Fold:
Amino acid sequence: MSGTDRPQHPADLPDRLAEVFDLVGPLYRRAHRKVEQDAPIEGLPVGVRAVLVLLREHGPMTVPQMGRAQALSRQFVQRMINDAAARGLVESVPNPAHKRSALIRLTEEGTAAITAVLARERAVLSQAGDGLTDADLTACIRVLTHLLHFLDNVDVD
Structure:
């Protein structure tokens, strides 16, 4: 794409992107509060839920891999793994690629717990989409993905 072929952005693009960030923070916090309020059935704190979702989506991972994937400290992820292990939701297995960094995987109980949580969340979200189109959601996902990639790759001094 040449410089003249680039899409034109509105002059207020930085302000519009700030609006996105101003909405994402409260949305994230409210969603997590709702999960914690509704999770007593499985008793899953938000951090444990996040680890279980990651393992469900990607299979066994090391604690450092999970930290990088979620942009969280290894120490925080380890605490969440310890909590999940104490609940019987995850287990450590040998890692053929690295003797000192075990792989963490879901147990049957962990798979059942995260599947139940996600099913409940999907049921609630099915009611949240009134008035939204597939194009709306596609644009939203495209914008948020773009911002996430930008923030992962930008150097701020």
